[in-house]
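REQUEST ID: PR-0412
SUBMITTED BY: lab tech R.K.
PRIORITY: routine
TASK: structure prediction, single protein chain
INPUT:
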Amino acid sequence: MNYKSLLAFACAIVLSFTATFGQITENPKVEEQSAEYVKIKRVELTDQYTIVYMQFEEKLTPGFKDLQPYLKRRQGGQQFEMPSTSTIGLDPETRLYKPGDVNVRFKLIKTKDIPTEMRKQVNPGDVVDFVAYFERLSPGIEVFDFYEGRAKSKYEKTWNFYGIHVKNPLKKNGKTTAKVIPKTEKTAPPIIEEKKEEKIETKPVVPEEELVMIKGTVYDSKTRNPVPAQISYLEKGDSLQYKSSSGNYRIGINPNERYDFKVFAKGYYGSNFSLNAADSASKGSFVKDFYLIPLTVGETISLPNIYFETSKYTLLPESFAELNRLADMMKENPEIKIRVEGHTDNVGDFDKNLELSTSRALSVKTYLINKGIDEQRIEAKGFGATKPLAKNGSEAEKRKNRRVEFVITKI
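STATUS: complete
OUTPUT:
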């Protein structure tokens, strides 16, 4: 056999090996993760599995570093170890998901060096290498999410990874083997058109000396510095505007009327608030300051007044004012792109919560599209219960975790 033939034979063996053992991605790029103490070292795609090689490290708490040489010592002829501070395990319901499509998911098959039906104790400074075997990702899915679920106590460690990039090109015939679980409802709910409020009967003109004063300052929420702003409101059917180059404002209002104020500052996400002076205990004047969030890439902004039917993704009319404000911001800033994110509490089935949060994010996206926003500027994604703001211990904490946010992805 000559040199060229030998080289060709060797290349054939290598190609055959690659086809058999699949693609390997060392230290894959991860866009976001919920815990820094776990990392993905490698992802291997074989004919049968998606194999995720991971490493957990139990960090030493402050003050323990200097005691590390004494973590193990002889005492009375027996070895003494510092007590375990937490436990780890991999929830058997752990899934891999195609981002943005909760119906394309890949089950956990087995694990190595980490339990699934029980927990493994870990001590300060411990490093645990373990492996998780999942159903094989469909060819062409080169970005996926890893959902490990939620902790049942403060001593349990859990982790989630979003946007894991791997080598997994489409096969030449372009066919995929994704396992799709059918949905009972495939389309986002119809959007109920907002009804305009009927004009209130005009009240008699109030003398200036009887006006109620509302005053305050518009601030940058990050720097706490005043920012130039514009406040608009309706009075007797007329649209009025108050512009302030210093951020300070002072407006006289009729004490018998209800007002809806909109606060706008260039480069910031605006704010709305309503005021009915007659219903307030304060008389004569009101002080209302505003802290606006700057529009910067990566900024997460909560949408506090978004409401859905219970356990459904149908938007309620009470949500329209907040969503209109978001639509107005996107019209005023045509270069901005966002990702709408849906979140739930930890009550109920994990997969159903993930699907519900995704459907709710899609409902918000649909509303914005119907308001004239290009769908290419809006991404929608659900995270279920994997990104809680509170512990889910009380109803108030669960309510806080049930939310819709948006993240600025481009500006």
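NOTES: The two ends are 61 Å apart (CA to CA).
REVIEWED BY: pending
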